[in-house]
Queue: 2 jobs
Job 1
Amino acid sequence: MKKKVMKESTAWQIGAHTVMIIGSLLAILPFILLVIASFTDNQTALVNGYSFTPEKWSLEAYQYIASEWATIGRAYLMTILVTVIGTALSLVITSTFAFVVSNDKLPGHKILMFLCIFTMLFNGGLVASYYVYSNIFHIKNTIWALIVPTFLMSPFNVVLVKNYFSNSISPSILEAARMDGAGVFAVFTKIVMPLSVPIMATVGLMTAIGYWNDWTNGLYYLTENGGSQYYTIQLVLNRINENINFLANNSDVAAKAAQQLPSTTMRMAIAVIGILPIMCAYPFFQKYFVKGITLGGVKE
């Protein structure tokens, strides 16, 4: 009987590992192909398509990016700025709101939680949102157009943080702090937040990825005439995909505009540059990510 159980367990482990290996390869191989394509000669990519073993290698795409760093570099720095500011503000708003609704004794906390959940199910739509942000809040063609809409506070993140506060932080610790004379702000900053590193890292990583990869806010709220100075790297990449002459028309070296652009491989090179920071940061947040999702997704 024991041998049979051991054989079944071994078979399950082999099957599970096989599935995970295949899934990992399916996730990793596109990134490898992306990097290889960015180092492929443009003409070779046009004729033969993308390949893991290109016939001819080239640094032309990265050389062109270096020559156009006045445009691409500004977009890259703007992406970093928007991601840092947006993520910091989002964590502050999400954590404070979640801390409030996690207090079951607070009058009206159920109404606040209902309003939060309601926005996960229904919204006013793109037209109404665009009118409010553009004509009431007047954020169009400003840096706030990249920060406020969509990502500043997510109801899903609020639920994760709220559940973490309720299930992972003992009420007795908070009560002891209050008996020692700590106020609400002191309890939140000195006890709750230091104990909430896993969920804060999880929510922060998801929010940062959202800001880093976002191009729709710029598409909706930034115009080429009034807001091009706020273009992020993803928006620049999207513009390139729509019109490969975008960089040439906005370049400091306009004399080279007639020169043929390495259009195919340049898209790949900009994509590589765009995803590098996230790929480098994720390994440091992975341990918090798994723990935060597990504990934050549990409700007693």
Job 2
Amino acid sequence: MQTPALQIAPLGPHFSRIVLGLWRMADWSMSPQQRLSFLEQALELGISTLDQADIYGDYQSEALLGEALALAPQLRQRLQIVSKCGIKLRSPHRPTHQIQHYDTSRAHIIASAENSLRRMGIDELDLLLIHRPDPLMDADEIAEAFHTLQQSGKVRHFGVSNFSPAQFDLLASRIPLVTNQIELSLLHMAPLNDGSLDQCQRLRIAPMIWSALAGGRLMNDVSEQGVRVRQALATIAAELGATEASVALAWVLQHPAKPLVLTGSGRIAAIREAVAATAISLNREQWFALWCASAGRSVD
């Protein structure tokens, strides 16, 4: 089974519905050759889109990916690579950062993108996202940075992450955006009602979903909500002959905004579960049974 591909915006790129998130790559304790093998196995499952950020792995994840790609440079042509910028962490790797803060200045965006390219050993990013909304965000300055990167051939497309609909609209009034990467899961359903997914559907852009399994908590959360959700997942998984994780991801994937789901696991078995979710179709009663389990009530 392979995950399908999807054009994420009317003039946007084609990405795989399951995206390989690499924010934990530094924790996987893999050699460069093992990282390369993992990427190749993901590609065999149809996962061609990789999600990075400059800060991932305490500023180390992009370089780890670069080491793997250097072993097989031809692999780059089969991949779509996403990265993010705009957060400055306090870190031994960034000794000039006195406090953790946001920076969406033109200079920082351009420098971050260029550093990402250098660390990964590639010439162009398929997509660059502003990682978090910045209270000091100047939409004109960000647009200027984006135009500079696009015109120099360093970034193809742009988007945002964790933006509210109003924040998205502000930046989109200056430059086309192809996605908003947001959190959504059966333990975090706020985007169903806060306008984020409505906006994506209105603009015909596919959101990228992070923490679709609540960062792994969904399978072991001991709260009343977590227990209710797992009981509902177990019932539906038995009906469908699927795993509970696959059903939970299918619940997210079924939204009409056509989300892409990030998986952050370094285990190929977990990747296969995510791919299997793309073939699961929940009927409305099953979908709402999970919604009700999470909400702790029936629909009004």
